[in-house]
Amino acid sequence: MNKRPALRFEVEAQDGEARAGVLTTRRGPIETPVFMPVGTAGTVKGIRFEELESSDLDARIILGNTYHLWLRPGIDVIKSAGGLHRFIGWDRTLLTDSGGFQVWSLGALRKITEEGTEFKSHLDGSPRFLSPAVSMEIQAALGSDIVMVFDECAPGKGSHEQTERSMQLSTRWAQRSKITFDRLQTDGADTGRVPEAGGLSGCQALFGIVQGAGHLDLRRQSLEQTVEIGFDGYAIGGLSVGEEKSLMFEVIDEIAPKMPKDSARYLMGVGTPEDLVESVARGVDMFDCVLPTRNGRTGQAFTSRGKLNIKNAQWAQDNRPLDESCPCSVCRRHTRAYLRHLYMSGEMLASILLTHHNLAFFLDTMRGVRQSIRSGDFPKFRREFTERLSANGE
Amino acid sequence: MNKRPALRFEVEAQDGEARAGVLTTRRGPIETPVFMPVGTAGTVKGIRFEELESSDLDARIILGNTYHLWLRPGIDVIKSAGGLHRFIGWDRTLLTDSGGFQVWSLGALRKITEEGTEFKSHLDGSPRFLSPAVSMEIQAALGSDIVMVFDECAPGKGSHEQTERSMQLSTRWAQRSKITFDRLQTDGADTGRVPEAGGLSGCQALFGIVQGAGHLDLRRQSLEQTVEIGFDGYAIGGLSVGEEKSLMFEVIDEIAPKMPKDSARYLMGVGTPEDLVESVARGVDMFDCVLPTRNGRTGQAFTSRGKLNIKNAQWAQDNRPLDESCPCSVCRRHTRAYLRHLYMSGEMLASILLTHHNLAFFLDTMRGVRQSIRSGDFPKFRREFTERLSANGE
Lengths: 394, 394
Fold this sequence. Notes:
2 copies of one chain form a homodimer.
Chain A: E1 7-15, E2 18-25, E3 28-32, E4 34-36, E5 38-39, H1 49-53, E6 61-64, H2 66-71, H3 75-81, H4 84-88, E7 93-96, H5 100-105, E8 110-112, E9 117-120, E10 127-130, H6 132-142, E11 146-148, H7 160-187, E12 205-210, H8 216-229, E13 233-236, H9 245-255, E14 265-267, H10 273-280, E15 286-288, H11 291-297, E16 300-303, E17 306-309, H12 329-333, H13 336-344, H14 348-374, H15 378-389
Parallel strand pairs in A: 4-15, 5-6, 6-7, 7-11, 11-12, 12-13, 13-14, 14-15
Antiparallel strand pairs in A: 1-2, 2-3, 8-9, 9-10, 16-17
Helix pairs in contact in A: 6-7, 7-8, 8-9, 10-14, 11-14, 13-14, 14-15
């Protein structure tokens, strides 16, 4: 392959294992460490794109789910709009997952073979087949800026033998993903080309995924094999799927610092604000998680002093903002009493406002982390952040 | 009473019966004709206050429902926040209804006597009592800028005798409302005082309501009695409650032009964009209706070419905006195909975006009406607006 890189990553500052960098895609620069809001079905639930772009949030990259978008509205619809960016109206960077994790979550509804995964759609029960080649083709049609390889997520508590079999399958699927991906890039099947991308190729980037569950030797082997294939960036998959938190950090401790230093490191599906800060301390650059949006819809706010359940009667006449040290538009304007009233009344605005605040908190936290790494104060930031979180958490 | 008026109204231009004016409350000027979004439970459903204030919508006045706010979160909670404006975070004008209409809607759950209405809360079945005095006290505690008298809404198809009895009761309740209102204003029970209101009194304004269902003689009598009592503005109540549309316009035709020329005329609970334009043509200045918000949540968009049901399969790959001549942020950014996908996927963003567009359409329509009255082109505007609405309406 002669193509120029579709993505650049530069580490600007390092404090211990923690890194502050810039990930540049064809859509523009993204400061890291970065939290990526999850836009499952082409929308980050409960929030308008204008808000994601606002200075309050300023999300530079969001996620789309291949599985969900493939089933609904379907690739034809998205192609006819000119790709996912145009379909949803988002000009910034989009990362799409491969569908592997969603298919794996279907449990009994799926059957995994060497070729790929047969499963039944959760929407209408229709039979479907997803494989490395199909996933790459879908993601090319979506025109996302960062594509993930199609992998199998091993169960958190599988035996060494089971996990090894699964991990080796993931490696073979990663190889097959890369072959199809490279062909599609050359053929120009990507609907999301940006000819003006200048120094970048105008094509998509592909990330590999390290698997191996909680078995450190398998994790190391998976990392080696994945780097051997060679990708534009590297992810740690198969964590935060029910394993003990201590095991999760053991894996990150072991793997993150060994990942290529000149590539972005993405911890998939993690986590709480503490998880994010602790993982940055171990060398991770990128995160995605549904917590801020999902918990926002169920009445839980993340604040600098811990979690706050807006349903609690104690907030009924509390005229303070959700988080007294948060500068977001929700905290500037609305009180706990009002938000509780909205939630108890089943008003959509409760979800909208809590989602906004939660995303602001996650994104601000990452900006604070980044700043502290650049100024060499990350250990202090980490200590104070963690202490504050337990101040009056519920 | 020596108090200065809490509200000013001036007609700036007139074209036939249609009037363009300015209604000034202690919160600022409101250009009329004006559409008021309905904020039932302290929120205009599905939309943030920032959006209501944005240039897209620029709503100068919204409604709150006394009945709903009284039952939940309760007046104590709102008082502890310093009134409804502070509780919800809205600095512009608020009009509250009296609770009369909601109580009337409860049907079998209520019992009306000379004193007031006994009913059971729709939330927990607890017994409640609402009367002119209670409604005025609640509205004073809410601190709304415009208070409505407590009335009884007569059934749309009642006999002349029934309707007359109901109308006479409403008149007596209007007198009692005014007595309590005046005392509360003097006593300063209003929590929403704005000392900086300058030329205005810093107190609340009170509107009377003309009843009489579809009986024109009773409507005339009600108007006479209401004007005799004397209010800061006058409303037409009891329309759009199931009667024929032709009867509604008969009543408006008969009553609106006879209402005091130097006071604002408010048609309660009406209506579609056509209804608004046709009522302005008959001399009405103010409107409120749940249509743009409620229909937004059920997938119906109001456009300059008629209604559009976003669920229809014909929009699945339609990459045009909802309304090609609408300048709102939703129409600038999103396609019918995307909005349909969101709606079919049960995504909250569908409701958020359709509500925004619908409100923009209603508010823009009123701005267009106002402009045409000022330039003497209202008949042309009315004709063209009506013709366009049937262009490709569903």
